[in-house]
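Final report, results section. Input specification for complex C-07:
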Amino acid sequence: MSHMGYGCLMAVDREHVLRSAAALLTRKSTATMDEVAKAAGISRATLHRQFAGRDALVRALEALGIAECEAALDAARLDEGSASDAVRRLVREIEPAAGLLSFLYTENQLFEGEEQNAGWARLDARVSALFRRGQDSGEFRIDLTPAWLTEALYGLIAAGAWSVHDGKVAANDFQNMIVELLLGGATRREES
Amino acid sequence: MSHMGYGCLMAVDREHVLRSAAALLTRKSTATMDEVAKAAGISRATLHRQFAGRDALVRALEALGIAECEAALDAARLDEGSASDAVRRLVREIEPAAGLLSFLYTENQLFEGEEQNAGWARLDARVSALFRRGQDSGEFRIDLTPAWLTEALYGLIAAGAWSVHDGKVAANDFQNMIVELLLGGATRREES
DNA sequence: CTAGTGTGAGACAAGAATGTCTCACATGGG
DNA sequence: CCCATGTGAGACATTCTTGTCTCACACTAG
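Structure output:
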């Protein structure tokens, strides 16, 4: 029967294809559909049966990235404890998705004309709310807008992912480098 | 005679074409040679006479970006005064080139295979030296490597340029947002 | 006026990537 | 055993971009 294996087998295959495509496109953002198919171990025909075209594939990757980000936001429990600790948890949880994120980050720069996925707006709102909470509690300075702190976080994650990829930063330092710079800045301060 | 107007007229035309191409590609990094030519007010044939191909154009833009960065580094007098003030001057001087920089920044991500222009290495070295000077003087914390601070600066400049482009950050705040986050971080501190 | 030079417009072929299609093969259930 | 479904391989047309070429036109110096 067609409605049997369809729901379960296709799902895991689709998941596997998406993971492979993410891993490949993270390293080579201009990879061909043929290369993506080979990386996933399937033929171009099958790839094209699952994703109508390159656009559909990128959209699916976007949805995957959004889902992973939302899962990271959930796991980070942004509402609990101090805002600083929440930011630390957020970066820790989001690190596995950093490669995919940096790919989507630059990819979105050339989708400027079209409307962006509503999921990004939701993520932006949640992260912005975290920074705003930190400002309201007196923990964060108020002269940097939550919108900018959110964008800066994305930019630092992308820069961190590329730095690790280029070997300029040790993979183990990824979290600390981002969190410490974002929270504490470069200037030395007296430990209290 | 041909060897007369060649040195002077071609130079200014080339400069104009490069500026136009930079302005266009900053907004739409996938612009066609035809679009680049139209943006510069010349025909595709003439564009192709000045730049052998798209690669040559990008290389020339890269050289332009490097030259502007080096000019900014010179103007910022990185060796004078405190490292913090030097960083402030650097961001201020580099702001006009931020758009071009962010374009080249993402463009270089997909040149991963090829060797990068030696100019970038020189710039990295100069900026790294600035952060190292701040560390040696006790001004900057030593747990963030100069290499990471340099990459983070690039990432923040790109993020700032895109944020301004998307209207998420006011253009007037560009310098402050970057400098304050890079130097001071998000955490509030007592003013001394 | 005339020759030389640079430019714009457009035709043209080459190449790459995409989207679509067909066909043969394997596998798994009836 | 037989059939249906999904897959791989490959051919094919299409589209887009690029690089090259030719030709006509404007301008300018001699």
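DSSP finds nine helices and no strands in chain A. Residues 1, 5, 32-34, 44-45, 48, 52-54 of chain A lie near DNA strand C (CB under 10 Å from a C1'). This concludes the modelling results for the funded period.
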